[in-house]
Amino acid sequence: AAREDDPPAATIKAAAPLTPGEDERKFSYVMTYSRTGPARFLGHLDIIQLFYRILRRSRLPLRFSRGFNPIPHVSFGPALPLGMESMVEFIIFETTVPIGDPGRLLAQINATMPSGIVGNSIRIAAAKMPDKIICRYLIKLPIAPDPAALAAFNEAASFIVKRRRKGRVTEVDLRPMVRRFALAGDDLLELEAVLQSSRAGVRPEELVRTVFALDQDKTEAIRITKTWCDWPTMDTE
Length: 237
Known about the structure:
Layout: E1 27-35, H1 44-57, E2 74-76, E3 85-95, H2 102-110, E4 117-124, E5 132-140, H3 147-155, E6 160-165, E7 168-173, E8 178-185, E9 188-196, H4 204-211, H5 216-220, E10 223-230
Parallel strand pairs: 3-10
Antiparallel strand pairs: 1-3, 1-4, 2-3, 5-9, 5-10, 6-7, 8-9
């Protein structure tokens, strides 16, 4: 349903059909943002709908797909697990003209963000959505982690976990995806992992639960924050 503060639906339209030999200008931007507090309980589909609505309200000249049902060219980073906080989420969107004042646009967007979501930057994206992302997490446990269990994981050549989905059980080797897993305090761990769009990835809560043999109550008390990401295919200036 439309809201009173939404701009008219005609504010942002799909571009007119191109004539033969004509090309549409394209400008790609990446927006980074944080999700903390109550926003960590929003699902990925909620985030997608939220940003579509915010970008529509911003009256940006978004670039749309062609066809009978045009949609804006917007790509989202990997889904954040429910309950996890992050300082480094991102979306990539395309416009038909360059953004003149990214700082002003960011302030405009932040004025409409719900509690717990804050835009950090808008800058030119040098490429499409990266296939491989390196992420770092800070993990707070309800107990002090066992150093021997941590050492055993780091020394292992493989670390297999079993996952059940739709009645099927699959085995995933997490060890090659973990670049660093270390103590960061009495009850803190730091994890650095490689996420790849074409394969099953590391789930920090699952990894911690399995390595340290935590029961359900202790697992539910884990707090995880994604603190850093490296996007090698994107402009980081």
